[in-house]
Write a structure and sequence with these properties.
disordered N terminus; about 0% strand; mainly alpha
Length: about 450
């Protein structure tokens, strides 16, 4: 080995292996223990050479003592310790993201009190679930970090290990932790909710103040924005709100209207439905005026249908993802088919509808729910042009669906089968070209 540095841009690790590897061998001899209880020299050398590339993914401000310990453990073949250190760094980072998001909004999302002590008491699996729910983790991030959690629990120094991992498995673990867990949005700050509400309810906001809140809402977590916009709608619709407060809420929504996505619109529709079900005519009237000002009156005409289809999709997807799904899916699939056969699926929920149907149809590595296949096929054959468009784009979107089609041949084959159910006459020229290209790629 040479005496230079392992270098990737600004990551320079000393080539300490010439000194450490002989010492490891001497220590083993001193205890009269076999050398293979630690990683081999070749494995240590490989892992050490690959570390800089992975560490480059970590923001400089997060390359702390845990990352240093991970490097030291790797350099002496303690791969089980390296796993533990990098995983602890992931957990610390995710907890900080939750704090930045806002514990008060977390409590609102969970529907119960939630403070820093509760956060510190959360198990790793609970933390991952919550981060996914708050959209602090993407679907693929949630998927891969859950795999990392299993590896950490079974192969790290945190618990008695069932076996040793090798150099490539270690680097793969570190890579996923750096890519999905210790990420650049760590310092992203959420809107301080109490300050935000105090400002809105205090007095008429001038142009500069409105611009400040606009910018903060644009720069915050998407999930926090999805919670705050319906909150502003509620303030506007509350008959006890002063006119100044109501106008402040409306003006802020108008300023960020391009950031009101389908998920936020879905929450707004459900909020309107709650007013309607409770017979609160004052709030219903105010909500209609709110939608009118935002030029979203078209949402109201399909609000009930939206809620029905969304709930049916949610119930079916939950049944698909839970234990004993092959037995539980059919009635939920039948229910969704009955609903979508009797009404036009609202545009705001079409993507969720297609995703849910395809998730059930391709099944999982162990098979499909045979009793539900008929219902899935009927829905696929009746996809609208807009739904077909999303069906063709599914393979390019990061999701649990694409993870299944990429990793499991049986799921990929069933995706092809679903595509072939679409009648060519239902597709335009652009879609036909996408269709042919996708079929060739998947087969």
């Amino acid at each position: 080995m040479n005496n230079g540095l392992v270098s990737t841009n600004n990551i320079n690790l000393p080539n300490a292996l010439d000194a450490t590897l002989p010492q490891i061998n001497e220590i083993m001899k001193a205890f009269n223990l076999p050398r293979d209880i630690l990683a081999s020299d070749a494995e240590i050398a490989y892992a050490w050479s690959e570390l800089p590339r992975e560490i480059m993914r970590i923001p400089p401000e997060l390359r702390d003592g845990l990352i240093v310990r991970m490097c030291v453990a790797t350099s002496v073949g303690l791969f089980d310790g390296a796993i533990n250190y990098i995983w602890n760094s992931v957990i610390i980072t995710l907890k900080q993201k939750v704090k930045n998001f806002g514990l008060s909004l977390v409590a609102s999302t969970l529907g119960k009190s939630f403070d820093e002590q509760d956060l510190n008491n959360y198990m790793d699996s609970q933390l991952l679930d919550m981060c996914y729910k708050l959209e602090l983790l993407s679907e693929d991030g949630y998927f891969f970090l859950n795999q990392c959690r299993d590896i950490r629990n079974n192969f790290s120094s945190a618990h008695p290990s069932i076996a040793q991992i090798d150099d490539r498995e270690l680097i793969n673990f570190i890579s996923r932790c750096c890519k999905y867990g210790i990420t650049n949005d760590y310092l992203l700050q959420g809107v301080h909710v109490s300050d935000f509400l105090s400002s809105i309810k205090g007095r008429k906001l001038d142009e500069d103040e409105l611009e400040i809140w606009k910018q903060r809402l644009i720069e915050t977590f998407p999930a926090q924005r999805q919670l705050l916009i319906p909150m502003l709608m509620g303030i506007y619709c509350d008959p006890d709100s002063s006119e100044t407060t109501r106008l402040n809420a409306l003006k802020i929504c108008l300023l960020i209207i391009e950031y009101i996505d389908d998920k936020t619109k879905s929450s707004m529709i459900e909020q309107y439905n709650r007013y309607f079900v409770k017979g609160d005519t004052d709030k219903c009237t105010a909500a209609k005026r709110f939608f009118e000002k935002l030029k979203m009156l078209n949402l109201l005409s399909t609000s009930e249908q939206h809620s029905i289809v969304k709930n049916a999709c949610k119930n079916l997807l939950n049944a698909h993802l839970e234990f004993n799904n092959f037995y539980n899916e059919p009635p939920f699939a039948q229910r969704l088919l009955e609903i979508t056969s009797s009404l036009k699926t609202p545009e705001t929920v079409q993507n969720e509808y297609v995703y849910t149907v395809l998730m059930g149809y391709i099944g999982n590595p162990y098979g499909v729910s045979n009793a539900a296949i008929y219902f899935y096929e009927e829905m696929i054959r009746n996809f609208s042009p807009r739904e077909i468009d999303y069906l063709l784009k599914l393979n390019n979107l990061k999701s649990l669906f694409t993870e299944k089609t990429k990793n499991y041949k049986c799921c990929r084959e069933r995706y092809v089968m679903a595509l072939k159910m679409i009648d060519n006459y239902s597709m335009n020229t652009t879609q036909l070209a996408q269709y042919d290209k996708l079929i060739k790629m998947l087969e």
